[in-house]
Please model this.
Amino acid sequence: AISVGADKLGLKAITLVHKTADKNLIERTASFSAYVLVVNAEYSTVNDIANKISNFDDKLASRIAWVNTNLRPLYGAGPKTIGFEIVEQLGWKAPKHIVHPLAAGLSFWQIYNALTEFKDLGLLPNLETAIHAVQPSRCNPFVRGWEKYKKSGKFELERVENVTSIAETLCVGRAVNADQCFDVLKK
Model:
C-alpha cells in the first residue's frame, strides 16, 4: 500500500523486507516503482535495522516518512479502525471474545484500544470483551512471556531466533508492542 501511494504521488518508496518474504509480494511492490531491499535476516532484525537507519541522522529522518517508526501512530490507526468496525457491525455491542494472531502486537492492542474508547465515550454500555493472543508454536515470544508471567508473576519477553511458520506474516521474533499487549491481557 505504501508503494502504491508513493507511486501515485510521484514519490519514491524504499521497502525493507526479510529474507523469506513472499516473492510475489516483492514483485508487486517493485512494480509500483519502489526500491525493494531484501535483508538477509528475519522480520524483527529488519525492523531493528529500519529503526537504526531512521534514527541515524535527524535531518534525513525528518525528510523521510518511516512507516514503522515516525509514522507509527498513523500506521496504528488502521487496526484501531477494525475495533470500531467490529462494534458497529455487531449493532453497537462488543463481542465476548476476540481471538487475534499476534506478530509485533500493534493491531492486537489497537483493536482493544478502540473498544475501550467506545466505552469511555458512552457508545458501549460495558466492555466485557476478552481478547486472546495466538502465535505459531515456532514463533511465539509473546505467548512464552505470558506463560512465564502466569507462573512467576513477572512478564519477560525473550526474542525468538530462527522463526518459522507457514503463517509467514506472524514470524516476528520480538513483539515490539509487547508491553501494550500485556496490559490488555491483564484486564
The CA atoms of residues 57 and 63 lie 10 Å apart. The radius of gyration is 18 Å. The chain has a mean pLDDT of 86.
